[in-house]
Amino acid sequence: MGKMDYNEKENLIRSLATSMGMPDVKTTKYSGSRYDPATGTLYCEHFALPHSSLERIKDWYRHQMEQYRNLSARDSEMMEQYMRYAVAYNAICLLKDDIENK
Question: Which of 46, 54, 62, 82 could form a disulfide with 68 if both were Cys (CB 3.0 to 4.6 A apart)?
């Protein structure tokens, strides 16, 4: 599997946030994706994700990973769920690292 490009990462974050029902994911009139370093807001397509939302999303997935880590050793279904949370958490971390290092 190749490296995800910036737009793919942004789309993944937007999908994760909206699937979690994040209340502060605002709809904007702008299309495309960009990051505003002055405000810490990530604009993904028609949504705005403030820095605080990205942090809360990341923390939520980290917490879910911790919950399923021990259970996953006993049950393959739990292992699948753990892996989903791990992928989401790590995708958010990669995106944030990319944004902060630009």
Answer: 82
Q: Going by C-beta distance under 8 Å and a sequence separation of 6 or more, which residues neighbour residue 50?
A: 24, 39, 40, 41
Q: Has residue 1 been placed in a domain? A: no
Instruction: Tell me the torsion sign for CA atoms 22, 63, 33, 4.
Output: negative
- pTM here is 0.58
Number of domains within the chain: 1
- Give phi and psi for 22, each to the nearest 5: -60, 120
Q: Judge whether 54 and 13 are in contact, CB under 8 Å.
A: yes
- pLDDT (tens digit, 0 to 9) for every residue of the chain, 102 residues total? 456 666 677 667 767 766 666 655 555 555 667 777 788 787 776 677 888 888 888 899 999 988 888 776 778 888 888 888 898 888 888 877 766 676
